[in-house]
Amino acid sequence: MATINGGLPKQNGGDPSKLHSNADLSPQSVTDHVHAVNAASDERTKFLFTKLVDHLHDFVRETKLTTDEWMSTIKFLTETGKISTGVRQEFILLSDILGVSVLVDAINYPTPPGATEAALLGPFYTEDAYQLQKGDSIASEGKGDYLFVEGRVLDTQGKPIVGAVIDAWETDGTGLYDNQYVDRERPECRGKFLSTEDGSYAFGAVIPVSYPIPNDGPAVRILNALGRHPYRPAHLHVMIQAPGYEKLVTQLYFKGDPYLMSDVVFGVRTSLIVDPEKVKDEALTVSRGFKNGSKGHAYVKHDFVLATVEEAKEARKDAVVSDISKLKIGN
Ligand code: BEZ
Ligand code: FE
Q1: CA dist 328 to 28, 44, 47, 297, 323, Å?
Q2: Calpha distance 317→211 (Å, rounded)
Q3: Which residues, at least 6 apart from 40, have a Cβ–Cβ distance to it below 8 Å?
Q4: Whose CA is nearest to atom 4 of ligand 1?
Q5: Binding site membership of 96 for ligand 1 (Cβ less than 6 Å)
Q6: Which residues are CB-neighbours of 77 under 8 A, at least 6 positions away?
């Protein structure tokens, strides 16, 4: 935006006689006056607040924001704060549904060439998943339709990564994570595995289902006002860590899901969509650890490719603008 008066003096300590006049501000001049009194010594802080004030003021001017709209925004943010707790983060949800979270992720975790794309961590991760053996199921019997997932963890040169920790979590067949149950006693539909000598991993699970984001808070009211549905397509969360490699937080999505192209939090990457094979073979179903062979199961084969820490650093190099000299003030 074109600022009006780029040459205002910076705020000077606490001596009121030395401060420039803040009086008689106009809708145009107020922006430069706010910049002038913001005299952060840290360059990044200065940069962020200059941009924030520019964009906020432009928003108010361009929309001619009414006092009622401003007040209802304040009320909305107050409610968002009030409903947030240590385990319920309505501000993050707000950021998610407005596309801010994926934007921050895209800037901070650009995909290095050849590596698996990242996806949102989401609010349902817990650290207490049990360490399981290759082939075990993360879901107890009765939690949903059977799914078997296997593949390898590789580096960007196609070499196996041995001993990578694969942490997987998902909804049960009703679309709920274990930590959405008030009577949760132990981890369910989540588990940790180690990749073996050839980089391979395998585990049983249930077919996750699409679910709505929490519908009792202010975030969902925004969706209603904007005529949007509250659903995430079914997905399986995976976090993979190995020494020397960038942590990968990602999700697998399932072909055919009705919400695949309209994810409420904009998380879907087409490279992460899998097409499960329907396996009817009873013996194979049982050999993969499922109790009721006659139910058959869905089968997904998927390799994950991790970037080294150096490859990730390289990809990130120019992603965050921290240089104040790139900021145009006063023109
Ligand atoms: C999830 O993937 O679990 C999730 C992400 C953002 C908002 C709500 C849920
Ligand atoms: Fe999720």
Answers
A1: 17, 14, 10, 58, 11
A2: 36
A3: 46, 49
A4: 122
A5: yes
A6: none
Residue 158 in any domain: the answer is yes
Q: Whose CA is nearest to atom 1 of ligand 1?
A: 122
What distance in Å separates the CA atoms of residue 159 and residue 224, rounded to the nearest whole number?
A: 48
Per-residue pLDDT of 14-23, as tens digits, reads 566 666 677 8
Site to substitute for ligand 1 among 120, 189, 228, 231, most atoms within 8 A of C-beta:
120
Task: Give the Cα separation of 42 and 54 in Å (integer).
Answer: 18
- Residue 169: inside a domain: yes
Give, using CA atoms, the residue closest to atom 3 of ligand 1: 122
Residue nearest (by alpha carbon) to ligand 1 atom 9: 122
Q: Is residue 324 in a domain?
A: no
Ligand 1 atom nearest residue 213's Cα: 8
CATH number of the structural domain spanning residue 150: 2.60.130.10
Question: What is the domain range of residue 117?
Answer: 104-312
Q: For residue 101, give the ligand 1 atom closest to its CA.
A: 6
Among the bound ligands, name the one nearest to the CA of residue 122. Answer: 1
Q: Is the pLDDT of residue 234 over 90?
A: yes
Residue 237 token pair: 């969360």
CB 123 near ligand 1, within 6 Å: yes
- Beta carbon of 135 within 6 Å of any ligand 1 atom: no
Cβ proximity of 113 and 120 under 8 Å: no
- Split into its structural domains, the chain has a count of 1
For 98-111, write each residue's pLDDT tens digit: 999 999 988 888 99
User: 263 in a domain, yes or no?
Assistant: yes
Q: How far is CA 88 from CA 80, 91, 104, 215, in A?
A: 10, 9, 20, 12
What the block records as the tokens of 43 is: 């360059």
